[in-house]
Specification:
Layout (H helix, E strand, L loop, with lengths): L1 H6 L1 H7 L1 H23 L3 E2 L5 E2 L11 E4 L4 E5 L4 H9 L4 E9 L11 E10 L3 H20 L3 E3 L5 E3 L5 E4 H9 L9 H10 L10 H12 L8 E7 L15 E9 L2 E8 L4 H16 L10 H8 L5 E7 H9 L3 H4 L1
Parallel strand pairs: 1-5, 9-10
Antiparallel strand pairs: 2-4, 3-4, 5-6, 6-13, 7-8, 10-11, 11-12, 12-13
Helix pairs in contact: 2-3, 3-5, 3-11, 6-8, 7-8, 9-10
């Protein structure tokens, strides 16, 4: 009985040796992640779990109350905005392995409480972070299993080795729907395309969000081999640097493994003026009904104003990393 196993984990560990083995594999993988970043000169820090303003991701937060100050607080949804403060302060390579909390649904690849690793490097780009992420995953596989070709829970083999593929977000959408879709495609046309493919659209979604949902349904969920999906729209990437050669896009990638998003990375937005405009636009989206939109964080803007260097940043789900390496659901790997 799966429910009984999850509720009485101690008995599960006693009765099912393979469950205990997953514990050991996870510990080894996390140890490898730390070792690689330590070798690369990264400093591990800890940032606040309770925050005045939740930021760093588009997600619904858990709300709590700080009795001593009679103040509403939020459990963090990401560590990004605090790790960037460390970079502003001169810690040029910084990372954290943390617990995040998002007040959302649960399924085989989502949990409201999960572990993530985030890393930031001054004077790096999203290309730098792609190389780092591939190295982290492949080394974790090698140290944990002795190979990058892993055997999944259903007995099939899966290869995480080699050089991973890279595709363009809008090019892949165009190929999937049979007509050209770009960052300039009007919202109305995107909504019509979504409707043709049975994809429901919320009234408060911006054009980029609709494009991403079309991608997720028609392309992302079918990307079996490890694949970097590059160059996302500005209206869904408020913390990301504008693309160096493609107007309207940002330097952001998502990594898909076996149809599941495993990691994401940016060339980080360093300009406090543009950052204020982006977060102000997010606040308007929140007022328009989007429960996942970010808030305007004045303290974060003030930190950027002190001088934030060009920077690359990456976030990866640790539980999903174990899912990618074992084929187990996320509840088994948490």
């Amino acid at each position: 009985d799966p429910e009984l196993r999850y509720r009485r984990r101690y008995v599960d560990l006693i009765v099912n040796p393979q469950v205990k083995d997953t514990f050991y594999k996870r510990a080894k993988a996390v140890s490898t992640l730390r070792a690689i970043l330590d070798e690369a000169g990264y400093t591990e820090v800890e940032t606040p779990t309770l925050q005045n303003i939740p930021g760093g991701a588009s997600a619904r937060p858990f709300v709590t109350h700080f009795n001593a100050l009679n103040q509403q607080m939020y459990c963090r949804i990401a560590t990004e905005l605090y790790l960037k403060r460390a970079v502003v302060g001169g810690v040029d390579k910084v990372f954290e392995i943390n617990r995040n909390f998002r007040n959302e649904g649960a399924d085989s690849s989502h949990s409201p409480e999960f572990t993530a690793i985030e890393a930031y490097e001054a004077y790096a780009t999203y290309d730098t972070m792609a190389e780092l992420t591939q190295s982290l995953v492949q080394r974790a596989c090698l140290d944990t299993f002795g190979t990058t070709t892993v055997t999944l829970s259903d007995g099939t083999e899966y290869d995480l080795g080699g050089q991973w593929a890279r595709i363009d977000l809008y090019t892949s959408i165009s190929e999937a729907v049979g007509e050209e879709v770009t960052v300039e495609t009007p919202r109305e046309k995107l909504e019509a395309i979504a409707d043709r493919h049975g994809i429901s659209v919320a009234p408060y979604w911006v054009a980029g969000k609709i494009a991403e949902e079309i991608f997720e349904e028609l392309v992302g969920s079918k990307l079996w081999e490890p694949t970097f999906v590059l160059d996302f729209p500005e209206d869904t990437s408020p913390l990301t640097r504008p693309h160096r050669s493609k107007p309207g896009l940002t330097e952001k990638w998502d990594l898909y493994v076996r149809g599941i998003e495993l990691a994401t990375a940016y060339s980080e937005l360093a300009d406090p003026v543009i950052q204020r405009e982006r977060l102000a636009a997010q606040s308007l989206e929140a007022a328009n009904g989007d429960p996942e939109a970010m808030q305007l964080d004045e303290e974060f803007i003030e930190a950027l104003e002190q001088g934030f260097p060009p920077c690359g940043g990456m976030g990866m789900g640790v539980d999903r990393l174990l899912t990618a390496m074992t084929g187990l659901g996320i509840r088994e790997t948490i």
